Predict the 3D structure of the following.
Amino acid sequence: MPEYKITVNDRTYTVDLGRILDDSVDVTLDGKTYKVKVEAPMRKSSKTPVINRHRQVINAAEVPDRTSPPGITAETGDVVAPLPGIILKLLVKEGDAVNEGQPVAIMEAMKMENEIESPLSGTVGEILVSEGESILENAIIMKIGG
């Protein structure tokens, strides 16, 4: 225990202070031990605001998949968005024949224009987006049949 000399009303005492646990400390004064209650000093209120955020999802397994729209699963021949963005231009229409690697749409993602290419050669069966539409990553843009 740390030892201190204190003076009260011109009388000097030797005091040993124990470790503060919760709100009390053992104090030894001239060989006699006392349990002393300690109050924490008042703190000034912080000028920085405190933001209390409540958890929206308790279980991580319940977090929705935010990279693809709900209920849609990509299949062979589906043209999917590599990033979230906006469809600027559709370069083909339903029924058009396309070759593997041919640009079929242009989208803006992260302030850059990106050409979206056909994953295979075939015919455009269905276009699921329209120009100007915002889409998520892995959203199906169109379906191409072989």
Q: What stands out?
A: Residues 128 and 141 are 5 Å apart (CA to CA). The chain has two domains: 3-37, 78-145. The domain at 78-145 is CATH 2.40.50.100 (OB fold (Dihydrolipoamide Acetyltransferase, E2P)). The radius of gyration is 35 Å.
